[in-house]
Amino acid sequence: MLHTVKQSPFGHGNLPQALCYMADEDRLLLWQDAVIAATVPAWRQRLQPLASAGRLYVMQEDLQARGLQSDLGQLLTMSELVALVAELGSPQAW
């Protein structure tokens, strides 16, 4: 299953909650304001195991829109996200 988080981890508890409910084979997508987590050291450390396992995705357009850069996880475009959802089925939105 693909879990999607769109809110900043500094304003909402959605990211920690999503991480708690993820199964071993699940994947995580950070988009909208949640991409901030991929740039902050404390969150990068927490997300690194998912990235190392190839289970973390970060929306490239959302990073760019916020003037941010990250090398954590796999950067996705919107068309790549559509293909991923087609592959994995309906995501769990947080």
TrEMBL record:
UniProt GO MF annotations? transferase activity
Q: Which GO terms describe its biological process?
A: tRNA wobble position uridine thiolation
GO cellular component annotations of the record: sulfurtransferase complex
Keywords, in A-Z order: Transferase
Pfam hit, one: DsrH
NCBIfam families in UniProt: sulf_tusB_dsrH
Report what the protein is called.
Answer: Sulfurtransferase complex subunit TusB
